[in-house]
Amino acid sequence: MKTAVVTFPGSNCDRDMQVALREVSGREPLHLWHGDAELPDGLDFIALPGGFSYGDYLRSGAMAANSPIMRSVVAAANRGVPVLGVCNGFQVLTEAGLLPGALMRNAGQTFVCRTVPLKVENSQSLFTSAYDAGEEILIPVAHHDGNYFADTATLDRLEGDGRVAFRYCDSVNGSQRDIAGVLNAAGNVLGMMPHPERAIEKAQGGSDGRRLFESVIGSLVGA
Question: pTM for the whole thing?
Fold first, then answer.
């Protein structure tokens, strides 16, 4: 299988993501640059990492969402290729229209960096099948603009369709309904604020994030 990590100017978690994918899949992920116009043939999984793409100018993720590579990422996602966006990658996914809503400044206007408990809301998705519904897991966060926002109708639809993948057990952003991870309608795109790639082995303080990668990679290998 072929996985890839997209790097934008200002990305700083792309290496962490590459390590996580290599450790779980056993194969080196491809390294894609924001200025690339086309994706490699036969790509099975795409990850958008955290960081501060384009210095967070305009809005976090707004410029990255309009980079050449994202046109191909959007097309791939619409064909069913799994796409994971973490932290700034989540912001890019919302700005690119692959996920609803937006990520706003934290309620306390401060950068939050610590390990937090998450509740697994949906264990039936491509990304969460290795978890149990209602399970509490520990994943690090590191963000300043992590307050998920959407109108009431959109939030109700996400809840009703089971598209809330993860929820904070205690609010770290003052976020709307404490949503930490959102799926698209087809279930092949996940955006989440916490960093699963920073929790893939005990040396990092915990390995709860590893199961997210095991879920999606196991599904792809078994397909």
Answer: 0.94
**Of 13, 143, 144, 197, catalytic:** 197
The enclosing domain of 184 has a CATH number of: 3.40.50.880
Q: Could you tell me which of 201, 219, 220 has the C-alpha nearest to residue 16?
A: 201
Active-site residue flag, 144: no
Number of domains in the chain: 1
Question: Each residue of 163-177: b (16+ CB within 10 Å) or e?
Answer: bbbbbbeebbbebbe
Q: Tens digits of per-residue pLDDT, 68-92?
A: 999 999 999 999 999 999 999 999 9
Instruction: Respond yes or no: is residue 136 known to be catalytic.
Output: no
Does the CA dihedral 190-91-102-204 come out positive or negative?
A: positive
Residues spanned by the domain of 105: 3-222
> Measured between alpha carbons, how far is 209 from 200 in angstroms, rounded to an integer?
5
Dihedral through CA 29, CA 8, CA 189, CA 157, nearest 10?
160
Q: Are 97 and 66 spatial neighbours (Cβ–Cβ below 8 Å)?
A: no
Three-state DSSP state, 35: coil
3-class SS string, 154-169:
HHHHHHHCCCEEEEEC
Question: Catalytic residue among 87, 95, 121, 144, which?
Answer: 87
Is 195 annotated as catalytic? yes
